[in-house]
């Protein structure tokens, strides 16, 4: 008869030790290859649009990782939660692109 494993024992058997302490290591095991991929995954899941991961990844690569973090933080930490955070992220990223190109 098989012995039932507790939740923690099951996690220990599946996920390597080093990955249990580092969320980026867990993400890498899920085929997330870089910090940009992780950010795109976080944004797409927060916006409720996991199938638009590639779109968010493209925006992050276009405007940069730092500006993407800033926009995502603004949206997450705003007192008034938007109905469509994905549209707001896209609006703010397009706005930042315009400002960036005007400086050049």
Describe this structure in words.
The chain has 104 residues and is mostly helical. It has two domains: 31 residues, no CATH class; 65 residues, no CATH class. Helix content is 72%, strand content 0%. Helix 4 crosses helix 5 and helix 5 packs across helix 6. It is elongated, with a radius of gyration of 18 Å. The model has no long low-confidence stretch (mean pLDDT 78).
Shape: elongated
What is the count of structural domains? Answer: 2
- SSE string, helices as H and strands as E: HHHHHHH
Please count the beta strands (DSSP E, at least 2 residues each).
Answer: 0
- How would you characterize the largest beta sheet? none
Query: Structural class of the secondary elements?
Result: mainly alpha
The Cα radius of gyration reads: 18 Å
Mean pLDDT: 78
**Number of contiguous helices:** 7
Low-pLDDT residue intervals, each spanning 5 or more residues? none
From the N-terminal CA to the C-terminal CA, the straight-line distance is 70 Å
Helix content: over 70%
Strand content: under 5%
């Amino acid at each position: 008869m098989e012995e039932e494993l507790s939740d923690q024992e099951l996690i220990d058997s599946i996920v390597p030790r080093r990955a249990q302490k580092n969320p980026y290591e867990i993400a890498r095991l899920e085929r997330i290859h870089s910090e940009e991929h992780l950010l795109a995954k976080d944004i797409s899941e927060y916006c409720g649009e996991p199938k638009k991961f590639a779109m968010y990844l493209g925006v992050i690569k276009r405007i940069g990782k730092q500006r993407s973090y800033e926009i995502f933080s603004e949206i997450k930490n705003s007192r008034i939660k938007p109905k469509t955070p994905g549209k707001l992220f896209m609006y703010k990223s397009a706005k930042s692109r315009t400002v960036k190109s005007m400086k050049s």
